[in-house]
Amino acid sequence: MKKYRDSLKQYGCCFLLGPFFMIIEACGEFILPFLNANMIDRGAAAGDISYILKNGLYMMLAAVVMLAGGVFGAYFAINGSSRLAADLREKTFAKIQTFSFSNIDDFSTGSLITRITNDVTQIQNFTQTLLRGCFRSPVMLIGAVGMSFALSPELAAVICVVIPFLALAIIWMIRTASPRYTQMQASLDGLNNRINETITNERVIKSFVREEYEKEKFSHINEQLMEKSIAALKMMILLQPISALAVNVTTLAVVWIAGRRIMVGSMEIGTLTAFITYLSQILTALNFLANIVLQGTRAAASDRRIMEILEAEVDLTDSQGKKKEQEVERGEIEFCHVSMRYFKKNRENVLEDVNLHILPGQFVGIVGSTGSGKSTLVSLILRLYDVDRGAVLVDGTDVRDYSLKRLRDKAAVVLQKNTLFSGTIAENLQWGNEKAGREEMDWACRISCADEFIRSFPDGYETELEQGGANLSGGQRQRLCIARALMKHPRILILDDSTSAVDTATDAKIRKSLERELPGVTKLIIAQRISSVMEADQIIVLENGRIADTGTHQELMKRCAPYREIYFSQKEE
User: Fold this and answer.
1) pLDDT bracket for residue 544 (50, 70, 90)
2) What is the pLDDT of residue 44?
3) What is the model's pLDDT at position 99?
4) Phi and psi at residue 430, in whole multiples of 5°?
5) Is 289:119 a contact under the CB 8 Å cutoff?
6) What is the 3-state secondary structure (H, E, C) of 186-213?
7) Cα–Cα distance, 307 to 326 (Å, whole number)
8) What whole-number distance in Å separates Cα of residue 535 and Cα of residue 126?
9) Which percentage of the chain shows pLDDT scores above 90?
10) Cβ atoms of residues 70 and 21 within 8 Å
11) Residue-level pLDDT at 42
């Protein structure tokens, strides 16, 4: 309940007034039949019009009070549950934003979407039902049972015989439904994962004409969700007929017993009418309570899934930072006997005993075969992952001692996957600097050669981009991402194969601009093309997670066989 405590305090009036008004409505539920019975037995039987009118007025007033109680009770229940859900959704989203890459790897994208939407909605629905019925139903149940015994203890005994059987049936349904709801939500995760992957990669699917294959795959997952949903929800379907059976059986027994008493004159018709109404109210209250518990079972499954996010241990935090106020000023980088693996149960490291020293302002190239650990190496500088052994130092300080914000504010990275967001080009560039003006955008786009195509757009910087920048070419996306990174004015700039989609002439132009405009910035460029790093102050050659050699192009050509192999293979092409 800790995660709900703040919301309960903030919106306490909703959680108090909602049940209060529902109790008022419930009180009217068992008062009305009593007044109606008196009208029939005393007023109608004796022909006393004044008595009938008086009780009719009381019934009208009770109905108005019940109406007001129901309306206000529903309003506060909806208001409170909606605000609780909004707060929970915000907390969950905020926690996801603190996740490191390794934390995100523990959850699929579809699962996170399901948890922050559908699972929170289940808790919202349960809270609303709870506020409307947690006190109303017990009050109605106790009141109706009390009035039943007051009218006829003999008939009330029939109800006491039926209630335990109905309660046992409800308990069985709840115990059966609980694990099925968990399975249903897991199947919903799988469906959302499939939808996310399919829509994101729609262009690839169409280019390979794989629409039918994707339809079949989606159909299979959809059927699994349908089967799990039916298995879970049929417990709720059973609730209504079982309750109806209990009502009908009890009503028959009551009518049978009461009919004989009416015939001998020991019971009046109005009393029987009121008793049957109370019987219906008792079983309705039980039915509503059972529905609350069943919804609670589903909400509990959703709550556990949300708790997995909120209680997830974030492995990259500032809690151990010893120099949180320190800024990155020079951009000097040093790797000291660094080893790292993504999955801690794996025996083999992705990086093994890496030692490096990069001076401030140096232009450093990083090359190596696919899977050699190039991207992992630069991820450790930004502390997107933590090392298992050794240390990564920036300006002589372990990156684990920096504040994550201060470290990453002074470092800019353009990852292999170029991500742009829906909105204008200007809005995307301002991710690097929210207050940047046109002059600063021109500067960054000129260096990245993005100005060449931006000028060709009628709306320039106000050109609207589709999600992911889908209406741009690969090279255009890369150049915009480089410009966005430059807007941060970093001390360390990392380009992870971020010019692979541009031609060699543009690539060379970008590198020259970087050298000219950012002389004091440490620049690390991961490249597949040797031509992109030939002029680097230092080239790092990675092979199977280890440093094969470091040096200038001329030095590596003399003594590093893996580097020569890459160079000549590209020269032949």
Assistant:
1) confident
2) 61
3) 82
4) -75, -5
5) no
6) HHHHHHHHHHHHHHHCHHHHHHCCCHHH
7) 34
8) 64
9) 12
10) yes
11) 65
CA–chain centroid gap for 196, Å, is 14
Q: CA 134 to CA 230: how far, in whole Å?
A: 27
Sign of CA dihedral 517, 521, 526, 531: positive
Q: In the structure, what pLDDT confidence band is assigned to residue 345 with cuts at 50, 70 and 90? A: low
The whole model's pTM is what? 0.69
Residues 200, 203, 209, 212: is their CA dihedral positive or negative?
positive
Query: What is the distance between the alpha carbons of residues 382 and 405, in angstroms, rounded to a whole number?
Result: 10
Q: What does the pLDDT read at residue 402? A: 87
Q: Name the amino acid, one letter, at 513.
A: S
Mean of the per-residue pLDDT values of the chain: 81
- Please, are residues 228 and 180 in contact by the beta-carbon 8 Å criterion? yes
Q: What is the dihedral of CA 229, 232, 234, 236, to 10 degrees?
A: -120
**Mean pLDDT across the stretch 500-514?**
86
Q: Which two tokens stand for residue 312?
A: 């997830």
The CA distance from 249 to 472, in Å, is 70
End-to-end CA distance of the chain: 64
Q: Longest Cα pair distance anywhere in the chain, in angstroms?
A: 120
DSSP letter at 541 equals: E
Give the strands of the sheet with 351-358, arranged side by side. Answer: 351-358, 333-340, 389-394, 397-398
CA separation for the pair 535, 235 (Å, rounded)? 70
**Segment 222-237, tens digit of pLDDT:** 888 888 888 777 766 7
* Residue 543 tokens, joined: 């092979």
Percent of the chain with pLDDT over 70: 90
Amino acid at 496: D
Q: What mean pLDDT is predicted for residues 397-418?
A: 85
Instruction: Find all residues with CB under 8 Å of 548, minimum gap 6, and list them.
Output: 368, 541, 542, 560, 562, 563
Contact yes or no for 356/335 (Cβ under 8 A): yes
Taking only the tens place, the pLDDT of each residue in 255-285 is 777 666 666 555 666 667 777 777 777 777 7
- Own/partner pairs for 193-196, CB < 8 Å, 24+ apart? 193/108, 193/109, 193/110, 193/111, 194/110, 194/218, 194/221, 195/110, 196/109, 196/110, 196/113
CB-based contact 161:257 (threshold 8 Å): no
